[in-house]
Amino acid sequence: MSDNSFSRRNFIKISGVGAIAAASLNLGGMLSIPEALADESKRPQNADEALQVLMEGNKRFVNSMKKDQERSAERRKEVVAGQNPFVSILACADSRVAPEIIFDQGIGDLFVVRVAGNIVNPTNYGIQGSLEYGALVLGTPLIMVLGHSGCGAVTGAIEALQKGTEFPGSINNIVQAIEPAVVKAKGEKGNLLHNSIISNVQIGVDKLNNSDPIISDLVKKGKVKVVGANYDLKTGEVKLIS
Ligand SMILES: [Zn+2]
Predict the structure, then answer these.
(1) What CATH number is attached to the domain comprising 226?
(2) Which DSSP symbol is given to 73?
(3) pLDDT by residue (tens digit) across 97-134?
(4) 2 in a domain, yes or no?
(5) Ligand 1 center to 3 CA (angstroms)
(6) Is 183 domain-assigned?
(7) Number of domains in the chain
(8) DSSP secondary structure string for all residues of 93-145
(9) What is the pLDDT of residues 167-211, one digit of tens each?
(10) Ligand 1 centre distance from Cα of residue 154 (Å)
(11) 94 CA from centroid of ligand 1 (Å)
């Protein structure tokens, strides 16, 4: 979103998928999207297409066959007037997990929310509201919660539960938000960190699917799909979590 995206002058016309979503919630009078959007015809039209584009991009990244044209000066000009991303992604703040890079996408393709531990916290208006904006106003048909191997935030939650480690300031709040995932993973076979990372994503997907009133409604109406995935730091591969 540009700084002036919320100004009245720029919000004068409702169009595109976001408008349909807004109208379906009877929020048409309150919400609209910028008048000039990047070419919508090029964008994946549904969640399955969006997922396919992401996974193909990840394959290019893994095989070092990245495309660069989406980051050109031409592309930059194309999206000045408005954005038209095809997916909203909640990813960890970890410096090694940059969604545009690991999915080989360009400027204006991904609406990304990043927070340590990729936690879904409905009481955090910054995370929640951003994902709602992506799904409802920008009309992304797909929301992805993306965890990753070796996540420090999840490791912290394990340490907090096993050793009683306390973290300073708000770091402790993040760790506490992940603890239910560790508790859930404890009884499972295999590596506790890996299983906790997976269950943290699953809990996030579940929370978003039931997140009232906006995302749950879009999911029920089949306009938005929420998926979980895990990124492997070593191989570069993203795998879907069922
Ligand atoms: Zn992480």
Answers:
(1) 3.40.1050.10
(2) H
(3) 999 999 999 999 999 999 999 999 888 899 999 999 99
(4) no
(5) 28
(6) yes
(7) 1
(8) --TT--HHHHTT--TTTEEEEE-GGG---TT-HHHHHHHHIIIIIS--SEEEE
(9) 999 999 999 999 999 999 999 999 999 999 999 999 999 999 999
(10) 7
(11) 5
β-pairing, 110-114 vs 142-148, is unpaired
Q: Is the pLDDT of residue 32 over 70?
A: no
Across residues 29-37, what is the average pLDDT? 44
Q: How remote is the CA of residue 206 from the centroid of ligand 1, in Å? A: 19
CA atoms within 13 A on the CB side of 136: 24
Does 69 or 38 have the greater pLDDT score?
A: 69
- Whole-model pTM: value is 0.86
Residues 6+ apart with CB under 8 A from 125: none
What separation in angstroms does the CA of 144 have from each of 71, 84, 91, 204? 22, 16, 8, 10
The answer as to whether 163 is a domain residue is yes
| Pair type for strands 142-148 and 225-231 | parallel
CA 148–ligand 1 middle distance (angstroms):
6
Among the residue ranges 119-128, 149-158, 216-225, 230-239, the one predicted with the least confidence is 119-128
- What is the CA(55)–ligand 1 centre distance, in A? 20
